[in-house]
Amino acid sequence: MTTIITAVVLLTLLALVFGVILGFAAQKFKVEGNPIVDQLEATLPQTQCGQCGYPGCRPYAEAISNGEKINRCPPGGTATMEKLAELMGVDPEPVAAVEEEPVKKVAVIREEECIGCTKCIQACPVDAILGSGKMMHTVIAADCTGCDLCVEPCPVDCIDMVPVQTDLRNWDWKLKGLETIPVKFVEEEKSC
Amino acid sequence: MLTNLEQLDNGVVWRIPGGIHPPEQKHLSNQTAIGTLPLDEYYYVPVPQVGEQASMAVAVGDHVLKGQPLTHGLNQHHLPVHAPTSGVIKAIEPRPSNHASGLPVNTCVIQADGKDSWVDLQSASLETLSNDDIVARVQAAGVAGMGGAAFPSHIKLSPASDIELVIINAVECEPYITSDDRLMREHADKIISGMEIIHQVLTPQRIIVGIEDNKPEAADALRKALSASKLPAGVARVTVVPTKYPSGGEKQLIQLLTGKEVPSGAIPAQLGILVHNVGTCAAISDAVLQGKPLIERVVTVTGGNVAQPGNYWMPIGTRVDHVLKCCGFNPEADQKVIIGGPMMGYTLPLIQVPVIKGTNCVLVPSSAEMSVDAKELSCIRCTECAQACPASLLPQQLYWHSKSGDYDKASDYNLRDCIECGCCSYVCPSDIPLVEYFRVAKSAIRNANEEKLKSERAKQKFEAKQARLEEEKRQREAKAKEAAERRQSNMSGGDKDAIAAALARVQAKKAVSAATPEAGADRKDKVADAVARAKARKAAQAAQSDSPAPEQNQANDAQKDKVAAAIARAKARKAAMQSDNEAEVDTNQTSAASSQKDKVAAAIARAKAKKEALKQALQAEAPTDSDNKSADEAADTLEPKADDRQARIAAAVARAKAKKAAAKDAGVNDPKGQIPEQNSVDSIAQSDPGELSAEEAKKARVAAAVAKAKAKKAAQQAGDSKSTVEDTQAESAEPKPEVELTAEEAKKARVAAAIAKAKAKKAAQQAGEGQGSDAHMQKQPADVNSAEPDSNSEPADVKPEAEPSAEEAKKARVAAAIAKAKAKKAARQDGEAQRPDNAAPLNDERSEAMSPDTDQSEQAPAQSAEEIKKARIAAAIAKAKAKKAAKDAEDKE
């Protein structure tokens, strides 16, 4: 009988101790927010374009973590969608209404036509447009995410989305294709 | 155990992993001395830094001399570009670049004038130059690494850390290239001179020239030049290393000579080692000692398809097609032109591109030298590539991941440490172009990293914008709140005006009861007088209400307001004693917000008042007036001051009784006369709480007394008409009716007075004043409410007065609303019949009294102390006139 009581008491004590430890650990090492949201957000292209129907990439990441579809990001394209699918453990779905490989674009203001209405400045989610009232505006190409949001508000339609120019810095060997220099040295001629 | 330096001095050569021994073709080009090419017509000098670190120093159409700088910039990373020959700038525009992509890059096109005339060069001796001078001269000369990477040499010459060992790279391991070989053979002294300069700047412990054993002539030439150099003995030596590709790689050469491996991602300077190419040494010598900019270099032109392979001094910007033409280029079908060696070079997409600072070889192999394009086979995992790799990587793994696009995994296998030497491709039995895969993967990873950085920046900027918008919103709200508060305080400032107006109105109402008995023989005069005063008051009022809101917040403005209000009150009080007409006038005035409105309303009110006064004068009944008034006054004086409240309660009760009586008397008495009176009594009761000062309280008592008196009268009338007298008297006894009831002898007289008043009211009603009282009634509650929060002017009296009246006021209002409705109806009925009476000529005195007032209301918006003063003066004049008129009237009587 005493052994049973001892066992019960000991187990109860143990349960209490571990409960305290676990409770302390839960408080001490509490994870703020949902970590999957950060991972999802890091995967998204951060164009902040709102084409997914959410006001920015973070809200979409949060929506995905709550069960939104993963194929809503046209700027990210299929690659992003696949990463999202992998993160969320869902099947990849074709990205809604977008070409296979999204072309990186940048907004360009035809400066002589700009009337300085500042509407595009307000629309730009990343402050990539410079200008002020009744002054010519221009796009800081390095900061432009190509989200298209400035095109719609322009009253004089002076904003063009042009593909990003390839220069020596962002040139990709892929463009050249796999091409070796097939200079083979006439080894046969020489006896080693 | 030997120290590092001893090992270096002994010429110890370490092993490097991997490497291959491709068959050499150096004999093709190293047999002849360095030649020169005939001058080309055009030179394409790329100016890639323009727009970033530099700007153009010349413009299109300028004539430039050989060695003249084309760009200038203050940036540390600026690498000047010089004109390779004298001539005219024809264009500065994007042209195809000497790059694997052939993408256009900003290029300065110089049309040679054929004279090839130099600018004045500033030569100097090494002894007179400081280190900074040397570095500056190196930068000004635009010296860049000539081994291929074209890194600015002046940056290498000013390192952040101490340099213990300088290695001069004379290995030149590429199988075809001999430019350094020939340079060493012919210009060893220049190279040694460059080493002296480097030694002076960096003061390393040792300078080691590493050279492959396949260039014995060059090594001999260097040793000879070195022995004749001014370098301290034992500092510099030439170490011959075995021929092995790629010993000429920077990291490989360091490992070969020192046994140290440069860590992944680090640069040799972190080990205290610096590597310079022999060509760079010669260029540094030229730049520092002769002031000669780097405008030409030795380039090997070789391959089976040139008739005269060899090394040539080529001005930077010489077009490759010109070079080939001069060397007897014999192109085949599908001819490849390779810049650099066969191992690490790249084919040009088009040959109209310039020779640049890093170009060391132009290779045009014949088809005999080229193997047929071998088909790429599957990787058999033979690990030949891993054995050949000089960086100890695992090319087969890298290939696997690169091919599948799994660049993260490729990165995990240290893809970035790949030097793209091509050893793996060379040894691959499956002919897999491994290096090409790695280049693709590397550029993809680089782009992905840039994307990541960019998206990170975009995210930051987006968040910054969101935060900014949030902040702006918050500020806007705070501002709106502040504005609302200011408005509130302005309102309370305006409330003062409203209170003053309410007081004035109350007083005017009192006058309703007071004036009727007064209306004796001089009634006409007095009314006119009162009108004048009311106008003066109104002017003061307008002046007050005109003052802009923010100013009222200020102390002196508030002071002004109070003064004005006091003036208005005083005037109103006086006016109230004599006339009942002003109540409606007041109502109209105060209900209007702006001075403009005030003026318009005042004009209307004046017209109405005039009409009414005329009518009243006609209808007034003399005999009971004085009695009635004295009774009222007696009642007033009898009441102690502390009894305000009771008085009001009494008044309210009286009103209630009067109402009842009125309701009952509807058949007996003239309802049209009775109801307007009820109206005015109610109004007075409601505006009671608005009275704030002691004087006002007194007035309120007066008004209450008047009301009570009226109520009594009404009760009397009701009694006369056999109604329930007991009821009403019992009710009126509750608060404190005794005091008022003492004036029993005046009762009858008052009845008469009431009748007279009723008639006067009726007249007023007929004159269209029914609406005025309506407006008045609506205004009252607002005044009562607004009086409460305003603690500025009369703090003590507000609450005790306002609280008890609330319920009564409500009752009274209900009653008043009923009465009003009736009055309106009556007025409507009677209006048509009696309107013709209203048209009456203006009284002279009145029009006189009015004139200063009119002026006043026009000047009112100015709103200053002077204006108030003027208003007071005008009011005083008006009063004086009124008094005179009254006296005249008395005299006449």
UniProtKB/TrEMBL annotation, chain A:
Q: Which domain of life is it from?
A: Bacteria
Q: What is its main location?
A: membrane
Any note on cofactor binding?
Answer: Binds 3 [4Fe-4S] clusters.
User: 4Fe-4S domain location, by residue?
Assistant: 32-90
The 4Fe-4S ferredoxin-type domain sits at: 105-134, 135-164
Q: What is its EC number?
A: 7.-.-.-
- Cofactor(s) in the UniProt record: [4Fe-4S] cluster
Kindly list the positions annotated as binding [4Fe-4S] cluster 2: 114, 117, 120, 154
Which keywords describe this protein according to UniProt?
A: 4Fe-4S, Cell inner membrane, Cell membrane, Electron transport, Iron, Iron-sulfur, Membrane, Metal-binding, Repeat, Translocase, Transport
Q: Which SUPFAM superfamilies match?
A: 4Fe-4S ferredoxins
- PROSITE patterns attached here? 4FE4S, 4FE4S_FER_1, 4FE4S_FER_2
Q: Where does [4Fe-4S] cluster 1 bind?
A: 49, 52, 57, 73
User: Where found in the cell?
Assistant: Cell inner membrane
Positions binding [4Fe-4S] cluster 3 in this chain are 124, 144, 147, 150
Q: Enzyme class, one word?
A: translocase
Q: Which stretches of sequence are listed as region Hydrophobic?
A: 1-26
The free-text function statement in the UniProt record for this protein reads:
Part of a membrane-bound complex that couples electron transfer with translocation of ions across the membrane.
Which family, according to the similarity comment?
A: Belongs to the 4Fe4S bacterial-type ferredoxin family. RnfB subfamily.
Q: Which NCBIfam families does the record match to this protein?
A: PRK05113.1 (NF003475), rnfB (TIGR01944)
Subunit structure, briefly? The complex is composed of six subunits: RnfA, RnfB, RnfC, RnfD, RnfE and RnfG.
Name of the featured protein: Ion-translocating oxidoreductase complex subunit B
UniProtKB/TrEMBL annotation, chain B:
Q: What Enzyme Commission number(s) apply to this enzyme?
A: 7.-.-.-
User: Which key words are in the record?
Assistant: 4Fe-4S, Cell inner membrane, Cell membrane, Electron transport, Iron, Iron-sulfur, Membrane, Metal-binding, Repeat, Translocase, Transport
SUPFAM superfamilies the record matches: alpha-helical ferredoxin (SSF46548), Nqo1 FMN-binding domain-like (SSF142019)
The entry marks the following residues as binding [4Fe-4S] cluster 1, namely 379, 382, 385, 428
Q: What is this protein called?
A: Ion-translocating oxidoreductase complex subunit C
User: Per its database record, what is this protein's job?
Assistant: Part of a membrane-bound complex that couples electron transfer with translocation of ions across the membrane.
Q: Residues annotated as region Disordered?
A: 464-495, 512-868
Species the sequence originates in:
Shewanella corallii
Compartments it resides in: Cell inner membrane
Q: Where is the 4Fe-4S ferredoxin-type domain?
A: 368-399, 409-438
**How is the cofactor bound here?**
Binds 2 [4Fe-4S] clusters per subunit.
Please give the Pfam families that the UniProt record associates with this protein: Complex1_51K, Fer4_7, RnfC_N, SLBB
HAMAP family (alphabetical): RsxC_RnfC (MF_00461)
